[in-house]
Amino acid sequence: QVQLVESGGGLVQAGGSLRLSCAASGSIFSINTMAWYRQAPGKQRELVATITSGRSTNYANSVKGRFTISRDNAKNTVYLQMNSLKPEDTAVYYCAASLIFESGRSTNNYWGQGTQVTVSS
After folding, report:
1. What is the pLDDT of residues 65-104, one digit of tens each?
2. Is pLDDT at 1 greater than 90 in this prediction?
3. Residue 15 gets which letter from DSSP?
4. Strands 10-13 and 115-120, how do they pair?
């Protein structure tokens, strides 16, 4: 069984920082692109940042210059460093990964369970 487990969420004041982690485990052959998404109450889930296996990154305009995505391929872990947080960053943050399983099957979006980030003003 494959799992993506997020951690690092919490409550922080505006201007503060948090670091999210997402560790993949289980019967994984390889991990391609990893990503962070977020969903605020009453809103659609939106893409925050992506990182390829070669560590090429892409960010939503709303987080450019404030958030940094990185990964440790040896640990099958992706991180999201969030600085200068704003109340509008409040959301449940989900990681997702494009995986090839040991069985040979693959999926483009395998999801974690999410972690809550709340930014107070």
Report:
1. 999 999 999 999 999 999 999 999 999 999 999 999 999 9
2. no
3. T
4. parallel
